[in-house]
Design goal:
The protein has 154 residues and is mainly alpha-helical. 46% of the residues lie in helices and 11% in strands. The strands form three sheets. A two-stranded antiparallel sheet has the order 1-4. It has a two-stranded antiparallel sheet with strand order 2-3. A two-stranded parallel ribbon has the order 5-6. It is globular. The N and C termini lie far apart (64 Å).
Length: 154
């Protein structure tokens, strides 16, 4: 029988272009998302939009617009408008999920890190985020360069 164990986790914030703007310290996987968000509070600009999932239910930073899906009530169904809202929000959250999967391209992040040194774990996560941001910026620059070439050649 295989023992189950918690991994490690970090909180990230990204923009609409998938750039990682914030990375929290590494915590054990058993820590709840909302507890991490409360412990590592981020000062966001007033009236900015924070899209979060149900793991952060109840986390509402001051002066920030929070978009989170509706939770299904016990023994009831969501209304039609709530289902539509959840679908629309899920389509915008795809950007967040893509940035998370971009970080996890570094295989060391997906696998179990057997090093118990927290500084090393934090460094590995910082490097993974930096590589993801580098990839994102290079893709953006190349896309603009290709678009410029198409305009010039036509």
């Amino acid at each position: 029988m295989v023992k189950k164990k918690h991994g490690i986790k970090n909180l990230t914030l990204c923009d609409d272009n998938q750039l990682i703007l914030y990375l929290s310290a590494t915590e054990s996987g058993s820590m709840h998302d909302k507890a991490m968000a409360d412990e590592y509070a981020v000062e966001l600009p007033p009236k900015s939009v924070l899209r979060q999932d149900l793991g952060f239910l109840g986390h509402h930073p001051p002066h920030v617009i929070v978009e989170e899906p509706f939770k299904k009530p016990k023994n009831k169904e969501l209304s039609f408008s709530q289902k539509i809202y959840n679908k629309m929000l899920a389509s915008t959250r795809v950007v967040i999920e893509h940035s998370n999967s971009g970080i996890k391209r570094l295989r060391m992040i997906k696998d179990t890190i057997r090093v118990h040194n927290t500084e090393f774990r934090d460094t590995v996560m910082v490097v993974a985020c930096a590589l993801h941001n580098f990839r994102t910026i290079v893709r953006s620059v190349l896309a603009h360069a290709c678009a410029s070439l198409l305009i010039i050649s036509t």
